[in-house]
Every structure is written in structure tokens, then in C-alpha cells.
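Notebook B, p. 112. Complex prediction, attempt 2.
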Amino acid sequence: MPANTASQTLARPLPDTPTPEPATASYAVEAKALTKRFGDFVAVDALDLNVERGTVVALLGPNGAGKTTTVRMLATLLRPDGGSASVAGHDVVTEAEKVRREISLTGQFAALDKNLTARENLVLMAMLRGRDRKAARKVSDELIERFDIEEFRERLVKKLSGGQRRRVDLAASLIDQPQVLVLDEPTTGLDPRSRQVVWATIRDLIAGGVTLLLTTQYLEEADALADRVVLIDHGREIAAGTPAQLKAQVGEQRIDVVAVDSAALADLQSRLGERFEVRVNREQRTISVPAPGGSADLALVAGAVQDSGIAVDEVALRRPTLDDAFLALTGHHVEQDQGNTDDDDSEQE
Amino acid sequence: MSTTTIAQTQTTGQRQLPDGGRERFALLRYVRDTLLLTARSLRSIPRVPERLLDVTIQPIIFILLFLYVFGSAIHVHGISYKDYLFPGIIGQSLAFGIIGAGVATSNDMTEGVIDRFRSLPISRLSIITSQVMGQFCEALLGMVIVIVFGLLLGWNPQLTLAHGIELIALMMLGIFAFTWTGVFFGMLVRSPDAMQGVGFIVVFPLSFMAGTFVPIAGMAAVPRAIAEWDPISALVATVRGLTQGVHSSGSWQLDHPELAMVIWCAILIGICVPLALRRFNRTLAS
């Protein structure tokens, strides 16, 4: 993955830090003070966002943070109430039609006609993009091969699994090789296996040099795919930087040991504290130990717990979540009503 | 609706548009996109046959119920109940087209596919016209089914050629107006279920009291007052007047059903078409 420019230091809560910018052109997506209100609710609040050509930027945030609203404005599906944005140098309001040629948005819910087959969908989209039937079939068949759709190409979309739909959806997004590809929560609601498949597909696209803006609720996903992560909440930027910078702040994976009661917690704290660097969360009776070594560290910690003879409820390896990132960067958790970082969003049809 | 400038040339080298001249033919493109999208919605009919229930099976059930279950208790002066009933059923199924179009539209809107179409470099007008055309075809098909079924059961319309042509023209106008109405309401409501609910609460009673099954003249004062100005009454009265030569009276619109129907359609089209277009061009609820 390409490295990033120097200007991307971590910007702490105040989003308005002016970043030195080379004059336009190099940005595939450029948004300045982009704002969208729905009644009194400010969904996107003076958001600045730049995506350099050929890079992958992840817009990371909880439900309701304004991710979808932002990308819908960029894709000309929503009209901004303030600020400006351009895609491939074209203004999203005044040159909407040109923008639509350069950007391809794959929404949260598969943007396919569920009563058509996978292939019929691709052919239709290709024809709507100006091809005659023959050329449309040709490009569809190429995409079917590239995205491994072959085995379910003649199946109705409504009968496909979530992961299969997502693949067809991605294929449909790439018919005209858009300059900018936008994926809105590409793996939300997918099971872990489908998620891996979609990630692999996205990695192929990235290797092919596409400019990608993706939104996600998963820190892990941003880390896995993006060159640069922009953490947003309430429509504002909270932090931005490379995944490495973000992780340096948030912390790597860790091991959580959950004690059976507070007495056990105190014992554990002193025993484990002798050997490891520990952090204690009394409310949750949890002791956290950083685990850069992953499962090797898990074995060590589990061994130490075993040796101590203190009863525990759970010893588990945890990857940092969006909630951890929020806690580390803003000092507070993701708000309850915004849903959580866990896979609790059921797949919506 | 944005149009592209003629002189616009592709600046991006990496991608080839197979027919580079398309920008020059905005109208042609619009027609082509509309037809493609209409074909897409028609293609799904055999795959979701239940979508046609409201314009096919439902009127047939009403026909059977009223003809063979309630019919013996209903006597309309000067006309056999069969001949009285069919024009009513035709008017009613026309009105049900509102619900059908609304449900289909809100179905489309709540799914991502319309967003995909909207983000394509195609005319947005073609998306909505194709929606209307698809629904129009469905309603037309339903109408044909009802008429054929009626003729099979022995309905005996007394049509002159001139009346036949007038009837077809008025029905097309009616379907057009009601389809747009349905499409507009389909965009307003939050879900297909909500559309179904609204349809049931509003269209259902209005279509029953429109002189569909029993004469308006015999109704109690309140429903009668409503029925006399119910747009569907104008529809039913029009069909009945043209096919059976039977005229009702009681209000201006019942005395002049054809004219009233044209006015109603003009009002619906005048309100719903611009509002639907405006609504479509602005945001979708999300």
C-alpha cells in the first residue's frame, strides 16, 4: 500500500486544523466544510475530506456518525447544505452529471434488482452506461469471471447470500472503471467468512490502483484496507491518520482477564502486575494486558492466571474496536444510542 | 435534470465509452434508458406473480362474490345486476392501480437499486418514467384480464365504436393519472406496508362507495354525500354510461361523469407529476 504524505498527523478533536494542501488536482475527492442537515439534525458538520488519487481512505465511525450521508453527497445522491465537494475535479452540485461518470457508489444495501439474475443485473447496468447489448454482455462476463460469480450468475439476486450479493454489487460498480470507488460499509452484516471474501476482492481492486473511499464501523476493517483513516462522529472529524498512527494511539490487541469478583480482581492485579503491564477496569472486573505477540502472549497470560490459582470468568484475546478508538481519542465511549461496534447489526434486507 | 453539453468530450484516458456520441442525443438516450428500465420492471412480473394479485385475482374475487354471493339480494332498477356490476369492477380495479403502483414504487425506493440508477450517468427522468410505464402496463394487463373475464361470464356491454374508442381513451387517461398518483404516494410513504395500509384506509372504502356495487342514490346521507364527489364515482359512472347507457345522477359530477373524470385526472396529474418529480430529484428518506 502506498505511503502517505506528511500532513497526516493525528488531528485531535478540533477538526478545523488547516492542513497544508497542494493545489487541487492530486485529490480524487476533495470536500471542504461539507455540511448536511436534516431538519435540526446536523448529519454532517463542516467536514473536510481529501482522498488522494490511488489511495484508500476509510471513513470510520459508529452508526449515525454521518458516513453514509457524506458519501451520498459525494455520489450526488444528496445535495449538500453547505461547503463544497468535488470528485475528479468536478463539483458535485454544479457538475453532478460529470461526477456520476467518475464515481461509483456501492451502498450499504446491495444496489441490485433482486428479481433479476446476477448476470441480468450486470448487463442492465452496462447497457445503462451506454453499451449495446453485445458489449454489455461481454463486459458482464468479464466481471463475472473476475469476481468469481460464475456459479451463481443465473440465480436471482434475491436468492443469493449476503456475500454473493456484495460481490455482484461490487462488480456492477466497476463496469466503467470509475476513477473513484465508494464502498459504504461493504461488510456490515456479513458473516466472518463472507467478510474475508469481500476483503480479498477489495484488496484486488486496490492492487489494481483504484481510488477507494470506504466507510466502516470496524476498526479492524479500516486497518486491513486503508492507507488513511478518518474517524468521524456527529458528522465531524475526530482524528485522522494512517492506521499505524491510529493504532499507536488506540493500542494494539490485548488480553482481557475477567475476574469472578472484586476480591479476585485485586489479587489478580497484583499477581499479573508483577509480570505484565496491566490496566484495570473495575466496573467490568477486567484486567487488560497488551498483547503485541497475539496468541503467544495469550498462552503466557493464561499460564500466569493458571499459576496464580485465582478463579476467573474469562481470558480472551481482544482486537481493538471502534469503541476503544473512541475511548483513546476522545476519552468517552461510543454513545449507546448509536449502536455498537460489535456485529450487532443484523443484516437488513 | 441535468443535461450534458454537446461539446463535452471525455477527458479520462483510461476508460472507453463504447458509443462516444451518446451525449449528443439526449432525447434518444432518455428514450433508450426509459425502455431499458421499463423492461427491467416488466421482466420481474413472471418472477413475482403475486405482484399482480391486486389487479387480477382481487377483482375476480370481487366479481365472483358480488355476482354469485351478494348479487341475488341486490336489485338495480332497469338493468341486470351482471351488467351493473362489471363497469363498477372496472372502475374499482382502475382505482386499485394506485395501491399497486404505490407499493411497487415504495418497494423500489426502499431498496438500493434506485440509488444505483440515480448514481448512474442517466437521465433521472427516465428512472421515474420507467416506473410509471411499468405500472401502467401492469394496470392495463389487469384491466384486460377483468374485461375478458367479464365477457366470459356473460357481461353484455352495449358499445358503439365511438363509445368504445372514447372508453379506451378515458381508461388510459385514468390509468395514467392513477399510476402517477400511486408513484407519488409510493415515494412519500416509508415502506411498502405503509402504502398498503394507506391504500386500504383510503382507496378501499372510496372504491366501494363509488356506486361500484350498489347505486349511490340508496346510500345514507353521509356516505352518499362523499360518494357523489368521490373521483372513483366519476370513473364508475363513466364506464357504466358508455357501456350500458345507464346514467346516475345526484351531483354535478354524476351528471357529467366523462367531463368530471377528465377534470379529476387533470387535477391528479397536475399535482402528482410535478410533486413526484420534485420529490424524486431531492432526497430519498435515509
